[in-house]
Structures are given as structure tokens and as C-alpha cells.
Amino acid sequence: MNEDILFRPYKPSDPIPEITALLHRAYAKMARQGMRYLASHQDDKTTQERLAHGTSFLAIKGGAIVGTISVYGPYPGSEVLFYRREGVYHFGQYAVDPTLQGTGLGKRLYQTVEDHCRKNNVKTLALDTAETADHLIALYQRWGFCIVDRVKWDEVNYKSVIMAKELNG
Ligand SMILES: CC(C)(COP(=O)(O)OP(=O)(O)OC[C@H]1O[C@@H](n2cnc3c(N)ncnc32)[C@H](O)[C@@H]1OP(=O)(O)O)[C@@H](O)C(=O)NCCC(=O)NCCS
User: Fold this and answer.
1) In sequence order, what are the beta bridge partners of 124?
2) Is the full-model pTM beyond 0.85?
3) Helix axes 44-53, 16-32, angle to 10 degrees
4) Residues near 32 by Cβ (< 8 Å), separated by ≥ 6?
5) Which CATH number is 6-166 given?
6) How many CA atoms lie within 13 A of 156 on its CB side?
7) Residue range 97-103: average pLDDT?
8) What is the distance between the alpha carbons of residues 169 and 68, in angstroms, rounded to a whole number?
9) Is the CB of 139 under 6 A from ligand 1?
């Protein structure tokens, strides 16, 4: 499935409003369910900063951007102690167009990030998501992640779980 989809790194010339619109579409269902992820309503400046701050990948189908994911190195200034640790990368701004969700595209995007981390000898890959997003927590557990911490960010209306998976060594 999805053989006609190209996966490639994000470039500064990519159209930010198209990526913001994709994020809003992808996260709309979660927002309707009461989990107001930043990606459901963030502006273009935030999208651009989050894309450029990490290493980001896009999925392209017929010229349209249909998926995105970003991965970040250790954040010495993070509120999350776990994200400050040496060797810990985390991913986010992760979305697939609603018309293609459930077709295996998200898993391939995630695999792009895991492969990138393994190549760069990243020890631990982590993520955060709403503690009430049972389907996402179950999905990440199937992919080998465990809950390692919890945090409440001011920007969102839910408490988050931090999940992590050991990759190398
Ligand atoms: C999360 C997201 C990026 C995953 O992308 P996707 O293309 O839908 O995922 P895939 O089709 O590759 O499926 C991934 C897994 O979810 C399962 N899945 C997908 N859709 C499902 C559904 N409707 N019901 C139950 N399971 C489902 C698949 O079986 C697969 O499980 P497996 O890896 O154990 O086989 C995408 O659904 C999305 O954009 N969601 C909204 C934004 C979001 O929640 N982002 C993550 C925030 S932390």
C-alpha cells in the first residue's frame, strides 16, 4: 500500500501553510474529542519553527503533502527532565492526512525517524502524547515504547505521558 508516496526530508522551500493545514486536519478529531493538541490550531510560524528546529520528514502524494514528522535531539532547556538527557531524542508534529490514516503511512513515517535515529546512534527515542489518548498510547506500546514520565504543559488542556524506547546499546 502507498507505493506512490514519496518520503523525503523537509526543505526550507516547502510550503508552510500547506503543512499547517495538514496538521489542523489531522488533529481535528482529537480536538473534537477534547484533546486540544497544539498542532490542531497552531499558526504557520509555530509550524515552521517546529519543522526547522529538528530533522523533519514529509510524505508526498501526487505533489501534495500528506504526512509529516519531526525528530529533535536532546533539549537541555526542556521542562521535561527526560528530554534533557544525553542520547535522548524525541519526535513530534506527527500527522497523516485523515483520508490516508490507517493505510500504513504513519508507520512508514515513524520508521523513517527510527531509521534516522539508529543511523545516528541515538540511544533512546521518546515522545509525548495526551494521557487520555488510549489508542495512541496502545499504538506506541506496540511499537516498543513504555511510559516513563508525565508532564502538564500550559499550552495544552491535558496532562501528557512521556514514552520512550531504547534503540542502541
Ligand atoms: C497517528 C497517525 C500519525 C498514525 O498514522 P496512520 O497512517 O493512521 O497509521 P498507520 O496506518 O500506519 O497505522 C499505525 C497503527 O495504528 C493502527 N490503526 C490505524 N488506524 C486505526 C484505526 N482506525 N483503528 C484501530 N487501529 C488503527 C494500525 O493497525 C497500526 O497498528 P500496528 O502498527 O500495530 O500494525 C495518524 O493516525 C494521525 O495523523 N492521527 C492524528 C494526529 C495524531 O494523533 N498524531 C500523533 C500525536 S502523538
Assistant:
1) 88, 166
2) yes
3) 100
4) none
5) 3.40.630.30
6) 22
7) 97
8) 28
9) yes
Strand partners, 9: 57
Residue at 83: amino acid letter: Y
Ranges of beta strands (E only) in 5-159 are 6-9, 55-61, 64-72, 88-96, 124-130, 146-151
Cα 77 to ligand 1 centroid, rounded to whole Å: 30
In ligand 1, the atom with minimum distance to the C-alpha of 69 is 3
Grid coordinates belonging to 48: 515552521
Smallest Cα–Cα separation from 158: which of 68, 45, 27? Answer: 27
Tens-place pLDDT, residues 125-150: 999 999 999 999 999 999 999 999 99
The answer to whether the CB of 153 falls within 8 A of the CB of 161 is no
Cα 102 to ligand 1 centroid, rounded to whole Å: 5
